[in-house]
Design brief:
8 helices; 13 strands; alpha/beta; single chain; seven-stranded mixed sheet
Length: 286
């Protein structure tokens, strides 16, 4: 569901107990709001409750007044919560290396209106995609290359994050490892994509390894970036079937397709505030 001016999105998590939904709905109704969509989930194993509420500000009181109205309820139920303006379009910075399929897909979806955010820049250690990005009217920044240290690249990247006021960084096949400081600075607002095979193949030429083992499933995983390489909270996964007739090149083609799909969904859900972190996991209200 799209959001517009005068609409807000409340996301929250708290210890699960009786009366949470009623208290939230009552606060919104008493404040003159009209609930357009509401989703909730209670984790019975850990006793944690999650909720996303999309509502219209019918009285036009504004987000600050709504924060004041919701604060007492949040305090009563010990909530971790955020309130977002529906009309706000998060600023997205995309990082890419040599393979540009995910970048191309994201730019097309953004330009066509499928992603409710704005791509404000693309960064890379290579000049390869400058012409593609220029066609979308987006600034292209070349980071320090392979002769630079990881710290230098991270510093240049974070400088651009600050300069562009980026709220989300998307590693669209960015084949550089972010250092601990950058990971901490971008906690909860950096998304990565990588291949996923059953069994797992690490290191160089994963599609060749998968072909040699005769895999039947190729997949991709989109997740938040953490200091633990490729082990951040998973947002979305996509798979496709292959068989003995697929060559290494054909497996790579299938893999690129599922990477684009998984990453695009993760970015869309993030900018629509559909993802709530739950330790090493996520709750995704689709």
């Amino acid at each position: 569901m799209s959001t517009h001016a005068g609409e807000l999105i409340l996301t929250l998590s708290c210890p699960d107990r009786r009366g949470i939904v009623y208290a939230v709905a009552r606060a919104i109704a008493d404040g003159g709001g009209n609930i357009l969509d509401s989703q909730q989930f209670g984790d019975p194993g850990e006793g944690v409750f999650f909720m996303r509420v999309h509502f219209a500000d019918d009285r036009g009181t504004g987000p600050d007044a709504w924060r004041a109205a919701i604060a007492p309820v949040a305090g009563e139920f010990a909530m971790r919560w955020e309130l977002h303006e529906g009309s706000h379009r998060p600023r997205i910075l995309v990082a890419v290396s040599r393979e540009g399929h995910c970048l191309n897909d994201l730019l097309y979806r953004w330009r066509s209106g499928a992603i409710a955010g704005d791509v404000v820049g693309v960064v890379s250690t290579l000049p390869d995609h400058e012409a593609l990005v220029a066609g979308y009217g987006v600034p292209y920044h070349v980071l320090p290359g392979i002769d630079a240290s990881g710290d230098e690249r991270d510093a240049a990247l974070m400088s651009l994050v600050d300069e562009e006021r980026a709220e989300l960084v998307v590693l669209a096949r960015y084949m550089q490892i972010l250092g601990a400081d950058a990971c901490r600075a971008l906690a909860g607002r950096a998304i990565n994509i990588h291949h996923s095979f059953l069994p797992s193949f690490k290191g160089a030429r994963p599609y060749a390894q998968a072909h040699a083992r005769g895999v039947k499933l190729i997949g991709a995983t989109a997740h938040y970036v953490t200091e633990r390489l490729d082990e951040g909270p998973i947002i979305e996964q996509e798979v496709a079937r292959v068989d003995h007739a697929h060559s290494v090149a054909e497996m790579g083609r299938v893999g690129r397709d599922v990477e684009c799909v998984a990453l695009a969904r993760a970015v869309r859900w993030h900018v629509e505030h559909r993802i709530l972190l739950h330790g090493d996991r996520t709750v995704v209200f689709r």
